[in-house]
Amino acid sequence: MIAIIDYQMGNLRSVQKAFERAGYKAMITSDPDKVIKADKVVLPGVGAFQDGMSELKRHDLIQPIHEVIESGKPFLGICLGLQMLFDVSYEGGEWPGLGVLAGKVVRFDLPSQYKVPHMGWNQAHICRRAPVLKEITEGAFFYFVHSFHVVPEDLGVVAIESNYHQPFCAMIWHDNLMATQFHPEKSQAIGLRLLENFGQL
Predict the structure, then answer these.
(1) CA distance 92 to 99
(2) Any idea where the domains of the chain sit in the sequence?
(3) Which of 18, 87, 156, 199 could lock 24 by a disulfide, CB 3.0 to 4.6 Å apart?
């Protein structure tokens, strides 16, 4: 069973429905035991970094997330669920993250003609072909909605890079851990393919 972590932030139902369209059952849960016992885990999210971390702590979900990742089970982060995996975010201050990966979360610093948040379809450059990218072609388009992006210390974890005036990390992959800045559940057929690939792991 795929567990989608419910910490009161994010479009949980749309992620669940996308998995269902891809042919997989997924439960939405905030129960730490169910998260730990799941075969695969998804950490979605939309909203502010500090709020997200506070809600994970309030629901006693931080340790279960670490346990799942350390156990080797497939783990997928989406949008804020990618950002919170890193050490620190500079969104409205300086806030500690989960510290699973070394690096930081920073706001786009762009010329005035570029709108922030970055919203819409953007092209993917595949740097490393993670298992969830099976049959996804170089140059595919995914849907983004974000003002901040991750800067990993180890660029070797970057699986997809995209460009919004400047290159930025759009997906990471490290062993059983995969996370996207884009929203696969909003990325039509190509996003469903990624979720189907995750379900097959």
Answers:
(1) 19
(2) 2-200
(3) 199
pTM (2 d.p.): 0.96
- CA-nearest of 50, 58, 54 to 93 is 50
Per-residue pLDDT at 166 exceeds 90? yes
| Catalytic residue (one of 55, 91, 185, 196) | 185
Question: What mean pLDDT, rounded, does the chain reach?
Answer: 96
Q: Which CATH architecture has domain 2-200?
A: 3-Layer(aba) Sandwich (3.40)
Q: Exactly one of 146, 149, 174, 183 is catalytic; name it.
A: 183
Q: Alpha-carbon Rg of the chain, whole angstroms? A: 15
Point out the catalytic residue in the list 79, 118, 149, 169. Answer: 79
Q: Is 149 a catalytic residue?
A: no
Q: Does residue 79 have an active-site annotation?
A: yes
pLDDT higher at 113 or 42:
42
Active site residue 183: yes
Q: Which amino acid is at 68?
A: V
For residue 40, give the amino acid letter. Answer: K
Angle between the N-to-C axes of helices 62-71 and 49-58, in degrees from 0 to 180, rounded to the nearest 10: 90
Residues 52, 9: Cα–Cα separation, whole Å: 7
- Contact between residue 4 and residue 16 where contact means Cβ atoms under 8 Å apart: yes
pLDDT over 90 at 138, yes or no: yes
Q: Which residue has the tokens 């919170």?
A: 84
